Amino acid sequence: MGDPLRECRSAAEWAAGAQVIEIANKMSDFEQLSAIVGADLAALEADKMPAGWRDSDVAGTLEFGFADAQQLLPRVKCRVTVTVDAVCQRCLEAFKLPLEAEADLLLLRLDQEADGYDEYEVWELEEKLLRPQDIVEEMLIMAMPFSAMHVESVACKALSPKPEKGAEKMTTPFAALRDQMAKDNEGSA
Ligand SMILES: [Zn+2]
What we know:
Number of strands: 5
Largest sheet: 5 strands, mixed
Bound molecules: zinc ion
Order of helices and strands: HEHEEEEHH
Strand order of the largest sheet: 1-2-3-4-5
Number of helices: 4
Radius of gyration: 20 Å
Mean pLDDT: 89
């Protein structure tokens, strides 16, 4: 079976089928996103490069339908998450950056206008056929912060007090953070 994310159909067709796509992909399925994340990680020394950063899970859903009763305005409700490996701009260490993107998009042709749909963001259809993957990828790229940084000061070497000489552990700095995030995720799941 092909990946429905890569199928090309017109927006009206996606909407008419009330298509729901469960996103269960890897970072490596998204070329542009991978290129951006890879370029960021290129700043790291080779031995600090997080292994398997291309294998991060991209998960979420796309729900197609129509915004109006006349079925002239296709829309898609998108929710997608991924945890990317990023370089903290403060301490220059790798860390796990969770990204979440959510949007209600109105899928409009360039010659189409819609008034009174302020709750939607407009996605302009530049081509006849729509590939859902392009929506997911652009949403994730837009969700990337301009400057990625550790949120918690305890995790950031530039913010936490310097360890005493000799007390520095040889574990990877983001292992503890990753464990903590795994615990947090369990808690919220
Ligand atoms: Zn940091």
